[in-house]
Each structure stands twice: as structure tokens, then as C-alpha cells.
Amino acid sequence: MLACSEPTPPSRAGTYGFEAGGDVFHWPAERLPVRFYAQPTGNLRFLVQHAVDSWAGVFLYGEFRGTLVADSTGADVIVQADSVPDVPPDPGAPVYACNEVTAVPPIDTNNRFTEPFHIRVAVLPGFTPAQVAACLRRTTIHEAGHALGLFQHSPDPVDIMWGPSGAAPITADGPSDQDRRTVELLYHTPPTVLPPP
Amino acid sequence: MVVGYWRLAGITSGLACAAGALQAQLLVRAALGARHTSTLVHDSIITPFVLRPALAPALAVTAATPLDERWTAQVTLDFSTSTLERHDADGTTTGLGRVSTLAFTVGLRRPLGAGFAAGAGVGGLKYLPAGETGIFRSGAGGVLGLAGAVVSYAPPRVGGRWQLGIEARYDVHRFITPALRSEGFTSARTVHRIALALRAGRGGAAGAAGAAGAAP
Ligand SMILES: [Zn+2]
Question: Which of A29, A38, A130, A154 could be cross-linked to A90 through a Cys-Cys bond (beta carbons 3.0 to 4.6 Å apart)?
Fold first, then answer.
């Protein structure tokens, strides 16, 4: 029943970059859970909750937790959209039916973000609501990854943090092993930027 | 030496079969104390850190029946609960939620003299996390094999039906969860637990399953 040697920590080789211009940011333990506000549009709240759960679920050691708040005042991450279809996502091949962008806040002289992160969701014309829903589900996870501190894109299309160029859709349904290793590494790397007050 | 036991004749007639000429009898004891558990997980991401449960209250309930004048058979149900903690290299400690354990052991015990008794047993242990997160995100991984030992002391009883004693309980198991396997851990870690407890048993030999030990 007993072994003579104890297990060694696993290799975590295989990550992509996460800093921006040399700056590293992740939410510190004392700021958890990170407060996400989702504008009450369609099923945006569900999409944001799914994104938060997707990221929280990859951590083994409690490095990140997020929660949805009902009021944008005091939120750490604010997600807004003009319209979000509340339909089941299309199970077919991913299409570029949506667009999202995360605005990383400015940094003050104390190396602290001055305001919350803002994620803006846009629906592209010419697609079915189900195709849009599928796109939004994947892309909201991607944008939440930026809000967690993953400021770079993965070069690998199997990763949720892959950075498509042009009109290419994100194809991963959630964080991959490489996404997991990268965000783990980020959350154990000393940050150089402080969270917003 | 068996006269002082809390007799539950009838209920225990089956257990007493092996005792031959001994009467059917059952001693029930409860022990309440504190448990220290060694490291469950040692990992390193940039810097090393460990996970282990905080000092935990521990409750053990034991049912024992003598097999002969020296040996007592016993079964023990043991429960403890505390916060799982991550201890980082910089000295910070982070709570990761409540985790409880429930263990079941079957073993033998015998007196050592002067009120002391010792025993050993084997059984299983189940981790009961409060939520399926972190290292338990894919479950706790079933029942883990367990081996343990106990040393107890009970002073001579001066009167009354209850007798107090103290005991030190040690056990060892191998820990790993499905989430740790997914992370890349290829083998389980040996986990040691030790509990110090005050014990109350009903009957003259509460000392030990000892029974025998308390009244040699
Ligand atoms: Zn992006």
C-alpha cells in the first residue's frame, strides 16, 4: 500500500505568453471572488456565469473565483451587449457570428488599474440566433480570459485564447490543457500591476 | 474482567461467537479530540506550496468485543472535518473550503499493562469535500485503503459507570484524486494522520477495549 517515493509535481511545459508590454496582472487572492456584472440583455448573464465557471473550474488550488453581481457599481468586470439571443447554441461548425472586445483599463502612476475591465459584445448580421449564441458562448469565455489577466493570444487554434485573425471564429468550447497551464502559471507569477481600487 | 462491560447481550450474540466461553458483550466507546494531517498535495508552480487540512476536531466511535482474555476485536468509525488549506512558500495560507473524512477500521487490541493498551486495524477512508472544486472538482476518488494503530491509557476506575481515558490514534493512507491525475500527478502521496483524544467508555474496562488492559 505504501510507496517508497512521493510523487513529484507534474511538468507544466507548454504555455503561451500572458504579459502585455512586460506587465503581468492577475486578481490577487484578497480580491476574490472577482465581481462580474452582466447587463441584463438576453441571456448575457448566463453566458458570463458560464465563462466564470469555465475558468474557475480549471484551477486546482483556489487561485481564482468569480461571482456575478446585480449592480455594476463596484464591479471588477463589466460586460455589456446590444442584444444577445436567448436560444440554445448551434451545435454545428463554429462561424464568425459575433465580435467581442475587452478594454483593459489604464494604469496610474502607482501601477494600479484605474477602473474596471469592460467587455463589449456585438452580434454580427447574417447569422441565425443559434449560430450567434454558439459564437457568444465561446467568445465570452475568451474575453473573460483577458479579464483574468491573459493579455496575449495563443497561437494554437485548439485553445480558447487563440487569437483569430480576420473573420475566423474561435472553435474551442472551453479552456484547453494549454489554457489551463498558462493561466495556472499566470496566477503563480508575481503581478506587476495592481487591481482597480 | 469482563463483568464490568456495558452488556448488550442479545444484540451482540453474533459477534460473541468467536469468544467461545465468554459471554456475549459489547463495549462502546467514544473519543473526541484533535487531528493533525500531513501534506495531501505538494506542487510547484513558480514556487512550491502544499495542501493539507487544518487541525481538525475528530470523533471516533468504537464497538469492541473480547475474543479471549488478551485480545479484543473492534470496529471504529472515525469522522473529522476542517478547512483544506494551501500553504505557500511566502508564508501565506489560503482556505480552500471544508473537507471532511469518514474512516472505517476493523482491528484487534490488547492490553500492555498498567492501564495501557494498543491496537491496530485496517479499513477504508473517504474524503467528503464540501464542493466539487479544485482538487475535488472531479470527485474524491472513492474509498482509500487505510491502516492504523492506537495506543490508549485509562486509569483505574474509581467508581461510576463511565470511565475516561486518553488515546493517540495514528493512521496512514495514500491520497490522490481524479483531478490531480488529470493535472499530471502519476502516483498517490502517503498521508499520515495523528489524533489525540479524550475517551469515554461505559463499564469497568472502558480503558480498553482495553477492557482487558484496564483490569489486567
Ligand atoms: Zn482576444
Answer: A130
The CB density around residue B59, as the number of other CB atoms within 10 Å, is 16
Quote the domain boundaries for residue A48: 29-186
Please report, as a single letter, which amino acid is at residue A40: P
Q: Give residue-wise pLDDT tens across range B59-93.
A: 999 999 999 989 999 999 999 999 999 999 999 99
Neighbour count for residue B139 (Cβ, 10 Å): 12
Residues 17-46 of B with CB under 8 A from A: 42-46
Residue closest to A20 by CA, chosen among A101, A76, A104: A104
Q: Tell me, what amino acid is at B131?
A: G
Tell whether A23 is covered by a domain: no
Q: How many domains does chain A have?
A: 1
CA B35 from centroid of its chain's CA atoms: 9
| In a domain? residue A40 | yes
**Terminal-to-terminal C-alpha distance of chain A:** 51
A110 located within any domain: yes
C-beta atoms of A62 and B96 within 8 A: yes
All domains in chain B, ordered by first residue: 26-214 (2.40.160.20)
Q: At what angle do helices A129-148 and A177-187 cross, to 10 degrees?
A: 30
Inspect the interface and report whether the beta carbons of A1 and B176 lie closer than 8 Å. Answer: no
Measured between beta carbons, the chain A residues lying within 8 angstroms of B86 are 61-62
Query: Which of residues B15 and A9 earns the better pLDDT score?
Result: A9
A61-75 pLDDT per residue, tens: 999 999 999 999 999
pLDDT, tens digit (0-9, with 9 covering 90-100), for A29-65: 999 999 999 999 999 999 999 999 999 999 999 999 9
* Chain B residues lying within 8 Å of A189, measured CB to CB: 46
Residue A195 lies in a domain: no
Question: What's the DSSP call for residue A139?
Answer: H
User: What single letter denotes the amino acid at residue B89?
Assistant: A
Q: Output the domain CATH number for residue A115.
A: 3.40.390.10
CB burial of residue A92 (10 Å; 0-12, 13-18, 19+): exposed
Place of cell 473550503: B97
Above 0.95 for ipTM, yes or no? no
Cα–ligand 1 centroid distance for A138 (angstroms): 11
